[in-house]
Amino acid sequence: MFGFIGYAVFVFEISGFLLLIEDVRAYKNAKLKKEKTTAKLLGWSNIILGLLIILSNWIYQQLTW
Asked: At what angle do helices 4-18 and 33-64 cross, to 10 degrees?
């Protein structure tokens, strides 16, 4: 991965894991069900988006190199 792509993947993955670990726990302790669900959705979305960027970058490199 070159330049911006590696940085973007890093940011998506770290923010996804932090959302799942910290925010979900905090919302669970505060008994905020909607916020907890939203944090889970956003956390998993970030992780999946990071993985999709890695996969699409790999496919692009296989097709162009």
From this structure: 160
Q: Tokens 């944090």: give the residue.
A: 39
Query: Which tens digits make up the pLDDT trace of 38-62?
Result: 999 999 999 999 999 999 999 998 9
Neighbours of 43 (CB within 10 A): 20
Burial class (CB in 10 A: 0-12, 13-18, 19+), 2: exposed
CB of 42 closer than 8 Å to CB of 57: no
Q: What is the pTM of this model?
A: 0.87
What is the sign, positive or negative, of the torsion defined by CA atoms of 17, 19, 13, 10? negative
The single residue listed with the structure tokens 């959302």 is 19
